Amino acid sequence: MSKAEAAYELFKAAVGTDEGTGEWLEIDQKRIDAFADVTEDHQFIHVDPEQAAALSPWGTTIAHGFLTLSLLTHLSASIPQPGERYDGILMGINYGFDKVRFVTPVKVGSRIRAKSVLASVDLKDANNLQIVRTFTVEIEGESKPALVADWISRLVYS
Questions:
Q1: pTM surpassing 0.90?
Q2: pLDDT class for 53, splitting at 50, 70, 90?
Q3: Is the per-residue pLDDT at 1 higher than 90?
Q4: How many angstroms separate the Cα of 122 from the Cα of each of 10, 74, 157?
Q5: Residues with Cβ < 8 Å from 73, sequence gap 6 or more?
Q6: Taking the domains of the chain in order of start, what are their residue ranges?
Q7: Which of 14, 56, 98, 141 has the most CB atoms within 10 Å of its CB?
């Protein structure tokens, strides 16, 4: 049995289970402004606190939805993973998303964290798995999440 096939059995047994919740991360204006500069999206709701306070329904600036999505890499890293699933792994590759929904804006100064559920696993060949994890990004003190996304990854084993 290959390392990928062994990992497949471990992942398959965990499909549908909650993988845990990561650590909180504060979203400050400096981070929002830096993202605006990189993406050239300087809409006032993101970068102009005075205008956002006067004109937006949130009364303050909000993070770009794509900023929140891009932070999944960081947010997911603090969710503990069983090491035996990754025995022999060479690399993980971002394969994309099946579904992304931006549910609630993230106001400046908010803290967010990710929760993950292993949605599916497929053995692509003797050395490759494809996993789908459903991530929910929570906003501290909010009843609705910032986003929900099905993230597809390819895992390559030796």
A1: yes
A2: very high
A3: no
A4: 12, 24, 14
A5: none
A6: 3-27+63-157
A7: 56
